[in-house]
Specification:
Layout (H helix, E strand, L loop, with lengths): L6 H10 L6 E3 L2 E3 L2 H8 L3 H9 L8 E3 L2
Antiparallel strand pairs: 1-2, 1-3
Length: about 60
Amino acid sequence: MSGRKNPKHSKFMTDNNPKAQQVSIDGVIYNTISEATEILKISRSAIKYRLNNKTDKFKNWFKIK
């Protein structure tokens, strides 16, 4: 299994990680930023920038507390 992700382990870690933070991007809720990067095909740094940006352009991008 070298080099391949274990989907069961990834799901377990996502569900049981106290640091994992949900984010809402244009009305879609993602369990983690990593999940959003995989689905949206955007870099992690770009997503974090947009989440922290206070302009109207990214007003629908926010962290869920």
